[in-house]
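Minutes, project check-in
Item: structure for the 90-residue chain
Input as provided by the requester:
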Amino acid sequence: MVFNVGGQYYALRNRCPHSGGPLGRGVIRPHVISRGVGHFDFEREAEILKCPFHNWEFDIATGCALYDPSMRAKTYPVAVEDGEVVLRLG
């Protein structure tokens, strides 16, 4: 899966490292933060991918799970060459 976040391209494997869920069916969303009960804010708009199976959240740029950085979705290098988005698999 290839994502455009603020003009920068990123690619993630379509498989959640937690339970094998299809990340491509997940929701792209902001990161929700809280400074206390009843107070919440959003940051990093459209930079987080939420797995549809168990709601694990991953940073699209790094593939790292937000609350367990040791858990990581596989990432692939992406480049723009002659106006075409190119994904490097090997």
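Outcome recorded: The two ends are 15 Å apart (CA to CA).
No further action items on this chain.
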